[in-house]
Amino acid sequence: MDAIFHAEELNVNYERTPVLWDVSFSIPKGLLVGIVGPNGAGKSSLLKAALGLVKPLSGKIEFLQQPISRVRQKIAYVPQRQSVDWDFPITALQVVLMGRYGKMGWFGRPRRADREAAKKALEVVGMASYADRQISELSGGQQQRLFLARAFVQNPDIFLMDEPFTGVDLTTEKEIIELLKKQKQEGKTIFIVHHDLPTVEEYFDWVMLLNTRLIAYGPTSEIFQAANLAKTFGKMPTVFDEAASLCAKKMSGYL
Fold first, then answer.
1. Edge to edge, what strands does the sheet with 206-211 contain?
2. pLDDT of 145-155, one tens digit each?
């Protein structure tokens, strides 16, 4: 199996608190993958570590058998909506154009092709009529569609999406998942941090169950079972204490 996303003995901590401990996996391409676990389980931290936004304590993480520095332009990241300053004076079209910076360089000016691509992406997500609207004037669902358009315009091989359905009504959520399924049909691989358990089986081909450590991963029909969910969402003080001890030893130079 050629892994599009691979981690090996990955450990991440914030100060002395472990958020990911001894996480290893290999995910093949062309899948819609749900990353599922309780609050504070390390789901967002996994994406940030993969993107180089958070430095791991130890271990490695790769895309397409390469470090992020070599394949960054092949990856689109959709952060949590609440992490963005929506009062910043910028239009919807300008936000989507940010997805073209990797192709035109930070100091390059958008070309006609860039603008056309951005308008097309807005059209795909049903936001063409909002191109000149200030982002502060958009609803939560519209803002999420805007993020999706910015990701689409990059034409990536891999999408990393951090809770893209938060604050989105059910109709918009269903429309977004259908758009993502079309991307999958075109050979894209999509990873989504997700918290709504009832929709996991409907949305995802594979699922990763995470709670500081990786509980299980693989085809949803095999992994999304009661026993695994109990391990994921139940209390695991022994695992947490062991992870905390490992991090303390590494920081003290004993490992």
1. 75-78, 158-162, 189-194, 32-36, 206-211, 213-219
2. 898 999 999 99
pLDDT digits (tens, 9 = 90+) for 208-238: 999 999 999 999 999 999 999 999 998 543 4
Q: What share of the chain is helix, strand, coil (3-state, %, to 5)?
A: 45, 25, 30
Q: How far is CA 180 from the centre of its chain?
A: 13
**In this structure, what token pair is assigned to residue 58?**
């130890």
DSSP character at residue 133:
S
Radius of gyration of the chain (CA): 19
Contacts 24+ apart (CB under 8 A), 59-63: 59/7, 59/8, 59/9, 59/10, 59/11, 59/22, 59/23, 59/24, 60/7, 60/8, 60/9, 60/10, 61/6, 61/7, 61/8, 61/10, 62/3, 62/5, 62/6, 62/7, 63/4, 63/5, 63/6, 63/158
**Helix locations, 125-169, DSSP H:** 140-152
Please say whether the beta carbons of 7 and 60 come within 8 A: yes
Model confidence over 13-29: pLDDT tens digits?
Answer: 988 889 999 999 999 99
- Please give the Cα distance from 141 to 166 (Å, whole number): 9
Question: Can you give the length of the chain in residues?
Answer: 255
Give dist(CA 243, CA 13) in Å, integer: 10
Contact 59, 23 (CB under 8 A): yes
Listed in sequence order, the residues at least 6 apart from 179 whose beta carbon sits closer than 8 Å to its beta carbon are: 124, 125, 148
